[in-house]
Design a protein that fits this description.
Distance between the termini of chain B: 57 Å
CATH superfamily of the largest domain in chain B: NADH-ubiquinone/plastoquinone oxidoreductase chain 6, subunit NuoJ
Radius of gyration of chain A: 17 Å
Strand content of chain A: under 5%
Structural class of chain A: mainly alpha
Helix content of chain A: over 70%
CATH architecture of chain A: Orthogonal Bundle
CATH topology of chain A: Helix Hairpins
CATH class of the largest domain in chain B: Mainly Alpha
CATH topology of the largest domain in chain B: Four Helix Bundle (Hemerythrin (Met), subunit A)
Shape of chain A: elongated
Oligomer: heterodimer
Chain lengths: ~100, ~160
Protein backbone atom coordinates (compact mmCIF):
# COMPACT_ATOMS: atom_id res chain seq x y z
CA UNK A 1 0.00 0.00 0.00
CA UNK A 2 1.39 3.35 -1.02
CA UNK A 3 1.72 5.65 1.98
CA UNK A 4 0.87 9.34 2.20
CA UNK A 5 4.56 10.13 1.69
CA UNK A 6 4.47 8.46 -1.74
CA UNK A 7 1.62 10.69 -2.81
CA UNK A 8 3.27 13.83 -1.42
CA UNK A 9 6.49 13.06 -3.31
CA UNK A 10 4.59 12.30 -6.54
CA UNK A 11 2.56 15.49 -6.21
CA UNK A 12 5.69 17.56 -5.53
CA UNK A 13 7.41 16.07 -8.58
CA UNK A 14 4.42 16.92 -10.80
CA UNK A 15 4.21 20.43 -9.36
CA UNK A 16 7.94 20.90 -9.95
CA UNK A 17 7.60 19.71 -13.54
CA UNK A 18 4.80 22.23 -14.06
CA UNK A 19 6.92 25.02 -12.57
CA UNK A 20 9.92 24.12 -14.74
CA UNK A 21 7.70 24.05 -17.82
CA UNK A 22 6.16 27.39 -16.96
CA UNK A 23 9.51 29.06 -16.41
CA UNK A 24 11.43 27.58 -19.35
CA UNK A 25 9.01 27.31 -22.27
CA UNK A 26 8.12 30.22 -24.54
CA UNK A 27 4.99 28.88 -26.24
CA UNK A 28 2.01 30.48 -24.48
CA UNK A 29 -0.15 27.36 -24.93
CA UNK A 30 2.46 25.14 -23.28
CA UNK A 31 2.58 27.64 -20.41
CA UNK A 32 -1.17 27.08 -19.97
CA UNK A 33 -0.68 23.35 -19.90
CA UNK A 34 2.09 23.72 -17.31
CA UNK A 35 -0.34 25.62 -15.08
CA UNK A 36 -2.85 22.80 -15.51
CA UNK A 37 -0.14 20.35 -14.48
CA UNK A 38 0.51 22.33 -11.29
CA UNK A 39 -3.22 22.51 -10.47
CA UNK A 40 -3.46 18.75 -10.95
CA UNK A 41 -0.54 18.18 -8.60
CA UNK A 42 -2.37 20.18 -5.93
CA UNK A 43 -5.56 18.19 -6.58
CA UNK A 44 -3.68 14.94 -6.07
CA UNK A 45 -2.28 16.21 -2.77
CA UNK A 46 -5.77 17.23 -1.57
CA UNK A 47 -7.33 13.89 -2.50
CA UNK A 48 -4.44 11.98 -0.89
CA UNK A 49 -4.80 13.91 2.38
CA UNK A 50 -8.57 13.51 2.21
CA UNK A 51 -8.12 9.74 2.01
CA UNK A 52 -5.46 9.37 4.69
CA UNK A 53 -7.19 11.67 7.19
CA UNK A 54 -10.67 10.26 6.40
CA UNK A 55 -12.08 13.74 5.79
CA UNK A 56 -14.11 14.33 2.65
CA UNK A 57 -13.70 18.13 2.70
CA UNK A 58 -10.52 17.70 0.63
CA UNK A 59 -12.53 16.22 -2.22
CA UNK A 60 -14.92 19.17 -2.14
CA UNK A 61 -11.94 21.53 -2.39
CA UNK A 62 -10.81 19.65 -5.50
CA UNK A 63 -14.17 20.41 -7.09
CA UNK A 64 -13.65 24.13 -6.40
CA UNK A 65 -10.21 23.92 -8.01
CA UNK A 66 -11.88 22.34 -11.06
CA UNK A 67 -14.20 25.35 -11.30
CA UNK A 68 -11.33 27.84 -10.94
CA UNK A 69 -9.28 25.95 -13.56
CA UNK A 70 -12.21 26.02 -15.98
CA UNK A 71 -12.66 29.78 -15.47
CA UNK A 72 -8.91 30.35 -15.82
CA UNK A 73 -8.72 28.43 -19.09
CA UNK A 74 -11.78 30.14 -20.57
CA UNK A 75 -10.55 33.67 -19.81
CA UNK A 76 -6.87 32.89 -20.46
CA UNK A 77 -7.47 31.39 -23.87
CA UNK A 78 -9.77 34.30 -24.78
CA UNK A 79 -6.94 36.72 -23.85
CA UNK A 80 -4.50 34.61 -25.86
CA UNK A 81 -6.74 34.75 -28.95
CA UNK A 82 -7.10 38.52 -28.47
CA UNK A 83 -3.29 38.85 -28.30
CA UNK A 84 -2.87 36.61 -31.33
CA UNK A 85 -5.08 38.94 -33.37
CA UNK A 86 -2.61 41.77 -32.73
CA UNK A 87 0.76 40.01 -32.80
CA UNK A 88 0.01 36.89 -34.97
CA UNK A 89 2.28 34.88 -32.67
CA UNK A 90 2.04 32.60 -29.61
CA UNK A 91 5.67 33.07 -28.56
CA UNK A 92 5.55 35.04 -25.29
CA UNK A 93 8.82 36.85 -26.04
CA UNK A 94 6.98 38.59 -28.89
CA UNK A 95 4.41 40.07 -26.48
CA UNK A 96 6.69 42.95 -25.48
CA UNK A 97 4.53 46.07 -25.99
CA UNK A 98 4.36 46.68 -22.23
CA UNK A 99 8.05 45.90 -21.69
CA UNK A 100 10.16 48.75 -20.38
CA UNK B 1 4.93 -3.03 -3.17
CA UNK B 2 1.86 -1.34 -4.53
CA UNK B 3 1.98 -2.03 -8.26
CA UNK B 4 -1.12 0.02 -9.07
CA UNK B 5 0.38 3.16 -7.50
CA UNK B 6 3.80 2.71 -9.07
CA UNK B 7 2.47 2.11 -12.58
CA UNK B 8 0.26 5.20 -12.60
CA UNK B 9 2.72 7.36 -10.66
CA UNK B 10 5.53 6.65 -13.12
CA UNK B 11 3.13 7.11 -16.01
CA UNK B 12 2.04 10.53 -14.76
CA UNK B 13 5.63 11.66 -14.17
CA UNK B 14 6.79 10.47 -17.61
CA UNK B 15 3.79 12.07 -19.30
CA UNK B 16 4.40 15.28 -17.32
CA UNK B 17 8.00 15.32 -18.54
CA UNK B 18 6.75 14.82 -22.08
CA UNK B 19 4.24 17.67 -21.61
CA UNK B 20 6.90 20.22 -20.75
CA UNK B 21 9.56 18.86 -23.12
CA UNK B 22 7.56 18.28 -26.34
CA UNK B 23 8.54 20.51 -29.23
CA UNK B 24 5.03 21.13 -30.55
CA UNK B 25 2.02 22.14 -28.51
CA UNK B 26 -0.23 19.33 -29.76
CA UNK B 27 1.95 16.38 -28.60
CA UNK B 28 2.33 18.33 -25.37
CA UNK B 29 -1.48 18.38 -25.00
CA UNK B 30 -1.57 14.61 -25.54
CA UNK B 31 1.01 14.22 -22.77
CA UNK B 32 -1.18 16.31 -20.51
CA UNK B 33 -4.15 14.08 -21.38
CA UNK B 34 -2.11 11.06 -20.22
CA UNK B 35 -1.33 12.87 -16.95
CA UNK B 36 -5.05 13.53 -16.41
CA UNK B 37 -6.03 9.91 -17.05
CA UNK B 38 -3.32 8.47 -14.82
CA UNK B 39 -4.22 10.90 -12.02
CA UNK B 40 -7.89 9.88 -12.41
CA UNK B 41 -6.77 6.27 -11.89
CA UNK B 42 -4.90 7.32 -8.73
CA UNK B 43 -8.05 9.07 -7.48
CA UNK B 44 -9.92 5.76 -7.79
CA UNK B 45 -7.18 4.25 -5.65
CA UNK B 46 -7.73 6.98 -3.04
CA UNK B 47 -11.48 6.31 -2.60
CA UNK B 48 -12.54 9.33 -4.66
CA UNK B 49 -14.55 7.86 -7.56
CA UNK B 50 -16.55 11.05 -8.09
CA UNK B 51 -13.40 13.16 -8.40
CA UNK B 52 -12.01 10.60 -10.86
CA UNK B 53 -15.13 10.96 -13.00
CA UNK B 54 -14.92 14.77 -12.83
CA UNK B 55 -11.23 14.60 -13.71
CA UNK B 56 -12.01 12.75 -16.92
CA UNK B 57 -15.16 14.71 -17.74
CA UNK B 58 -14.00 18.26 -16.88
CA UNK B 59 -10.23 18.20 -17.34
CA UNK B 60 -9.78 15.68 -20.15
CA UNK B 61 -13.20 16.29 -21.66
CA UNK B 62 -13.70 20.04 -21.48
CA UNK B 63 -10.55 21.97 -20.55
CA UNK B 64 -8.12 19.99 -22.70
CA UNK B 65 -10.50 19.98 -25.67
CA UNK B 66 -10.66 23.79 -25.41
CA UNK B 67 -6.85 23.98 -25.33
CA UNK B 68 -6.54 21.62 -28.33
CA UNK B 69 -9.14 23.67 -30.17
CA UNK B 70 -7.11 26.84 -29.64
CA UNK B 71 -3.88 25.06 -30.68
CA UNK B 72 -5.59 24.00 -33.92
CA UNK B 73 -6.91 27.52 -34.43
CA UNK B 74 -3.69 29.43 -33.79
CA UNK B 75 -0.82 27.16 -34.72
CA UNK B 76 -2.12 25.00 -37.62
CA UNK B 77 0.00 21.97 -36.57
CA UNK B 78 -1.53 19.82 -39.33
CA UNK B 79 1.25 20.13 -41.90
CA UNK B 80 4.07 19.34 -39.51
CA UNK B 81 2.26 16.41 -37.92
CA UNK B 82 1.10 14.87 -41.19
CA UNK B 83 4.62 13.56 -41.86
CA UNK B 84 4.79 11.94 -38.41
CA UNK B 85 1.32 10.41 -38.72
CA UNK B 86 2.23 8.82 -42.06
CA UNK B 87 4.78 6.71 -40.17
CA UNK B 88 3.08 3.36 -39.47
CA UNK B 89 5.25 2.39 -36.47
CA UNK B 90 4.24 5.65 -34.77
CA UNK B 91 0.56 4.82 -35.15
CA UNK B 92 1.12 1.22 -34.08
CA UNK B 93 2.95 2.19 -30.89
CA UNK B 94 0.21 4.74 -30.13
CA UNK B 95 -2.52 2.11 -30.48
CA UNK B 96 -0.52 -0.33 -28.32
CA UNK B 97 -0.04 2.26 -25.58
CA UNK B 98 -3.75 3.15 -25.67
CA UNK B 99 -4.71 -0.52 -25.35
CA UNK B 100 -2.30 -0.97 -22.41
CA UNK B 101 -3.88 2.05 -20.69
CA UNK B 102 -7.41 0.66 -21.07
CA UNK B 103 -6.24 -2.72 -19.74
CA UNK B 104 -4.54 -1.12 -16.75
CA UNK B 105 -7.64 0.89 -15.87
CA UNK B 106 -9.82 -2.22 -16.11
CA UNK B 107 -7.46 -4.25 -13.89
CA UNK B 108 -7.18 -1.31 -11.48
CA UNK B 109 -10.90 -0.68 -11.06
CA UNK B 110 -11.40 -4.40 -10.36
CA UNK B 111 -8.88 -4.27 -7.53
CA UNK B 112 -9.98 -0.97 -5.98
CA UNK B 113 -12.49 -2.56 -3.61
CA UNK B 114 -9.79 -4.75 -2.01
CA UNK B 115 -7.62 -1.83 -0.97
CA UNK B 116 -7.36 -1.19 2.75
CA UNK B 117 -6.40 2.29 3.92
CA UNK B 118 -4.17 3.32 6.83
CA UNK B 119 -6.94 4.94 8.82
CA UNK B 120 -10.28 3.18 9.07
CA UNK B 121 -12.58 5.05 6.71
CA UNK B 122 -16.16 5.77 7.78
CA UNK B 123 -18.99 3.88 6.13
CA UNK B 124 -19.64 5.11 2.61
CA UNK B 125 -16.50 7.28 2.39
CA UNK B 126 -16.18 8.72 -1.10
CA UNK B 127 -19.80 8.00 -2.01
CA UNK B 128 -21.34 10.60 -4.32
CA UNK B 129 -24.23 10.91 -1.84
CA UNK B 130 -21.87 11.71 1.05
CA UNK B 131 -20.03 14.11 -1.22
CA UNK B 132 -23.24 15.91 -2.19
CA UNK B 133 -24.34 16.08 1.44
CA UNK B 134 -21.10 17.81 2.41
CA UNK B 135 -21.03 19.95 -0.73
CA UNK B 136 -24.53 21.39 -0.47
CA UNK B 137 -24.63 21.78 3.33
CA UNK B 138 -21.20 22.74 4.73
CA UNK B 139 -19.91 24.32 1.51
CA UNK B 140 -23.09 25.98 0.24
CA UNK B 141 -21.67 29.52 0.36
CA UNK B 142 -18.49 28.41 -1.44
CA UNK B 143 -20.66 26.73 -4.06
CA UNK B 144 -22.56 29.98 -4.68
CA UNK B 145 -19.33 32.01 -4.86
CA UNK B 146 -17.92 29.57 -7.41
CA UNK B 147 -21.07 29.83 -9.51
CA UNK B 148 -20.64 33.63 -9.57
CA UNK B 149 -16.97 33.14 -10.54
CA UNK B 150 -17.99 30.94 -13.46
CA UNK B 151 -20.58 33.50 -14.57
CA UNK B 152 -17.94 36.25 -14.47
CA UNK B 153 -15.54 34.06 -16.48
CA UNK B 154 -18.30 33.39 -19.01
CA UNK B 155 -19.04 37.09 -19.47
CA UNK B 156 -15.32 37.91 -19.59
CA UNK B 157 -14.69 35.22 -22.20
CA UNK B 158 -17.50 36.53 -24.41
CA UNK B 159 -16.30 40.13 -24.01
CA UNK B 160 -12.68 39.27 -24.86
CA UNK B 161 -13.73 37.48 -28.04
CA UNK B 162 -15.46 40.55 -29.47
CA UNK B 163 -14.34 41.47 -32.94
CA UNK B 164 -13.08 44.91 -31.95
CA UNK B 165 -11.42 44.78 -28.53
Amino acid sequence: MASLTHYIVLSSILFGLGTIGFLTRRNALILFMSIELMLNAVNLMLVAFSNFMADMAGQVMVLFIFAVAAAEVAVGLAILIGLFRHVREVDITKFNVLKW
Amino acid sequence: MDLYFWVFASMSVLAGLFTIAAKDALPSAMGLLTVFISLASLYLHLHAPLIAIFQVAIYAGAILILVVFVIMLLMAPGERLAAIQANVSYRGSGALLGMCLIGLVLVGTKGVSDIVSMKALPEGFGNPSMFGDLFFRDFLLHFEVVSVLLLVALIGGIYLCKKKL
